[in-house]
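INFO worker-7 received task bundle
INFO bundle size: 2
INFO processing item 0
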Amino acid sequence: MADPTRGKLGIVVGGGPAPGINGVISSVTIEAINRNLEVVGIRDGFKHLAAGDYAQVRGLTIPDVAPYYQRGGSLLGTSRTNPAKEPKDMAAVLAGLDHLGIKYLVTIGGDDTAYSGSQVYAHAKGAIKVAHVPKTIDNDLPLPPGIPTFGFETARHYGVQVARNLHEDAKTTTRWYIVIGMGRAAGHLALGIGKASAATITLIAEELKGKDVSLELICDIIIGSMIKRKAQGKGYGVAVLAEGLMELIGEKKLREIMEKNPGKFGTIELDAFGHLRLGEIEFGRMIRTMIATRLKDLGLKFDMVDKDLGYELRCADPIPFDAEYTRNLGYGAVKFLLSPAADANGVVITFVGGSMVPRPFPEMIDPVTKKMRTRLVDTGDETYEVARRYMIRLEQSDFDDADRLARLAAVVKKSPAEFRARFEYVVR
């Protein structure tokens, strides 16, 4: 039976959905109740609390949550409301948590939700103990090497199934698919899907860091892959692109393109955290349209279909890896909150080698950016090297070998020198 003198444990979900959220909610609730705490689920992240609405809560019991730990979605919904942005919003959140009698808080989300949780802990001055469970299908949070964020493996699993089906369709119908994979800050998901599905080419932002990235460069890299496949007698393929490439192109260049083509490629919008809402830009259509124009100038034509891949993955039922992983994380969050260590720090819950390792917020959150430090794809390691070795795309060796260069140039009816002048820049 819950002990009312200990206060309640609240659960908040922020950011985009990810497979396994219900697994965390379930495991937190069960463990907390087993330790004689009352559990309160707060609807739609911090949205209602920040607005001074303290009624959007529900008590959670073991029968409420037990059937859902292997189900996708979120029993508590989610939102991207950022209460740390305005002092009045944070004050309202703290007042709401106090009104509800919450002494322990589990936040589930990405870097923005982690920062919001850290600020609740800081402003509560010890009155509320906070543990953050990191989630994102992008896998871009700074967990220990080799440890994914929950939801990533499930998203990759189902993304690979889709990509393999698209590859078979491409082969059957002789066309190219341009697939845009979610991943604003890092290309883990796009690369994971592309590599495991044997996509023809996968392009992520990390590969192009430090370069002057334009839409033309991205298109020419893909066109180079198309030409190379054509030289091999194959007029089909699948190109997987990380949506984070849009960040490299930049808001200014994207805006210029979209203003020249009003309404054709979506709209420019910012979210509550000041991020470019990538989902509002039809990047795949933009890429496909420009590729078609540039192919026409080369005397080539390929049937192409663009496909955004991300929303289909976020609320999938978790695969066994994430079902088990989220149970560990939820249990670890409650164990930490009820330990003496919770008096000293608010933390991000991580697991290393089977053991729960709580990492204090200051270790995980950059005080300047107010975000968790981004974990990028390491393009210098063997894992990425393997991915590149099995792609079909232009390489420097294609320009260094006279026979290869001649075969590629013949596809577009150009001399080797003309082909080199047009395309060698994409491999530098």
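INFO item 0 finished
INFO processing item 1
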Amino acid sequence: MCATRVLWLLLVAWLVGSGAWGENLVFNPDFDTDVSGWTAEAEVSIAWSAIDASLDLSSGSAEVTNSVADANNGRGVNQCVDIAVVEGAAYDFGGKALIPDAQAKTGSAQVGLRWLAGPGCAGSTVGNQPRRETGTLGTWVELSSTEQIAPAGAASVLFLAFPSKIEAGGSLVAHFDDLYFRNTPLFADGFESGDLTAWSSTTQPILTVPPYVDQSKIAGLWWPYCDSGSCPPPLQTHDGLDFTPNEDLVPFQAAAPCQVTDVADFLNGGNGFYQVNVMMSCSANQRHGLIYAFEPMTDSTDDRDEQLANIDVQIGQVVAPGDVIGRLVQGQSYAHLHFGIWENWQQTCPEPFLSTAVRTELRDLIQSEPGHEDWEICN
């Protein structure tokens, strides 16, 4: 499969459409020019203020006024975060808050989350409602929370920023700036092994298992990686490894600890056949990742749907080496699993990342085919 362009476009589409792992998912978090994207609750007003947490003259903050009549009542502004929450996944949230001094009423400024059972912040509240607060007057205070776990049943999340007023009557004002909600990076030190030892392609191989579960069910590695411009005939430039099974529904497994970032089916314009791509991020800031392209080699929508039904992972899921990713539907001859690794947004030769045992196994698999005795994993 020569799919560099197709996979690259899918990767870019995922980054733009769903937010990169670790990216701030709050809309208008810095209030540079206005307070758009934020909804004031009943008896609350919101206005743009030139008071900026970083003293940036080109930015500002949200001035939120809580005028609820009752005592001990926190109410403010909110925003439904544009993300499909994955229960059990970890998220960070926070921001900066300022309570101007010399106010008649006292209280705190808080940021928090409300987990909801339905998509788009619909349905009932589920689980706990984490909060971070400050009662300090006259200065900006940073509020932060790390690794908040989305509770069972959570499908969406509402971000909250509000003054919580102690006394009845009157109003309490607080300013908010630099608000954020993001996925907690799973791999803080880069592409890591199971024991959390940082590694790179030049220091420590990490792919300790092959992408297939059972070698006896693999007919061959019929198309290796090639970008040299002098690929052994009849090879053309190719950005991964193609494994052909010898029966239907052969399972393929995770070759490294990663996070599933996308599962997408599409019609490959190069060959006119459907395929299902599973993309995984295996490091902070998506520096490294794996691609599994399940290619039944068919234009049948029934085969496409069957292939989708045989993907065993979902977006947001954390996988360990050996976890089954999916099973390949054998739609036609040359049905195969394309396996690729990317580094710094480019698919690259996987060999430096392979353990010695896996490297030997894959090289033997390639060279066992008559006429391929001089082929390498990367050519």
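INFO item 1 finished
INFO post-check item 1: The radius of gyration is 26 Å.
INFO post-check item 1: The domain at 23-183 is CATH 2.60.120.260 (Jelly Rolls).
INFO worker-7 idle
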